[in-house]
Design a protein that fits this description.
It is a single chain. Helix content is 83%, strand content 0%. The protein is mainly alpha-helical. The N and C termini lie far apart (128 Å). The longest helix has 81 residues.
């Protein structure tokens, strides 16, 4: 219990120290240690990567599932860590409708047969769309979302830690500066003897004595403040290095996302190529069926009626 109380007091003291330092910096009353330009550029690149990666992921989800209601449902299932129900695609719904109508009109009729053929093709396209979505989620969407949800959160946490270590460093610098000023003031007052025995001189001396006692409390902290500054500087330097290594890793993220993007385009290309092949084959079949259908009525129209006399002469 005592340990927890001491730790809580230390945490509260650290929080107050950082808050005071931040406020004084905001008001221009304290100096601020600036990060080097290279590290700042790495931070800016990481933030830009997060923003655009998030937008790309969102638009990819819209492409793969245009229905916002279904997207929200999938998001909720993802939060609950449950498997979302398998839904038919619009192509599959259309395919089922065409096949059912074709059987109703009659598979032996030209129109019924064509509807069944077209419906089966639509269902195949729907199945390929599911495969394309699944492949895109695994190879592209999940990796890019992983950066936003996981990798960048680690970077953000370390960057916040760096800001805290920077505040601790500057607070330690300010504390040492005040302690040294107090020590110098204490030495100056101690070197000034009282002027005579007059009441005013004694009173002035007493005030000075009290001031010296107060200042000595600061002077006694010079050594401690110097030790705190060294510790704060070491912690800051270590955090700078940790943050820099994470930020430089964004280059590897870009390279990884490039390969994921290629996989996405490959899957998209294969999907559209197969869809095109199915539609081209069906197009040829329907064209042939239409030609046969047209020639049949024409043949019926042009064939002679044996019951009619072309000469108009009664036999």
């Amino acid at each position: 219990m005592d340990f927890n109380a001491r730790r809580l007091a230390t945490d509260v003291g650290t929080f107050v120290s950082r808050a005071v330092q931040f406020t004084e910096e905001t008001l221009g009353q304290a100096e601020k240690t600036e990060l080097d330009a290279h590290l700042e550029s790495l931070v800016a690149r990481a933030e830009k990567t997060k923003i655009w990666t998030d937008r790309i992921a969102q638009q990819t989800e819209v492409l793969l599932q245009p229905n916002p209601t279904v997207r929200i449902e999938g998001f909720l299932y993802e939060i609950l860590e449950k498997q979302a129900p398998v839904r038919m695609t619009p192509h599959e719904y259309l395919g089922e409708c065409m096949v059912s109508s074709g059987h109703d009109f009659g598979p032996g009729t030209s129109y019924g047969s064509a509807l069944i053929k077209c419906g089966n093709m639509q269902k195949k396209i729907g199945g390929m769309k599911k495969d394309f979505i699944q492949s895109s989620v695994i190879s592209f969407l999940s990796p890019v979302k992983s950066f936003v949800k996981e990798d960048f959160q680690i970077i953000l946490r370390e960057h916040r830690m760096l800001q805290n270590k920077r505040l601790d460093l500057d607070a330690a610098k300010s504390k040492l500066k005040r302690a040294r000023m107090a020590d110098a003031e204490s030495a100056r007052l101690n070197s000034t003897p009282p002027l005579g025995e007059e009441y005013s001189s004694h009173f002035s001396y007493m005030l000075g004595f009290l001031r010296v006692k107060w200042l000595k409390m600061w002077a006694a902290e010079v050594v401690e403040a110097e030790a705190e500054l060294r510790s704060a500087q070491n912690n800051f330097n270590q955090q700078v290095e940790n943050t820099r290594l994470l930020l430089e890793g964004v280059s590897n993220t870009h390279s990884h996302h490039l390969h994921c993007l290629k996989d996405f385009v490959d899957a998209q290309s294969a999907y559209y190529a197969r869809c095109n092949q199915f539609t081209v084959d069906l197009q040829k079949q329907l064209a042939c069926m239409c030609s046969i259908s047209v020639s049949t009525p024409l043949g019926l129209t042009l064939s002679p009626d044996p019951a009619a006399d072309p000469t108009g002469i009664d036999q």
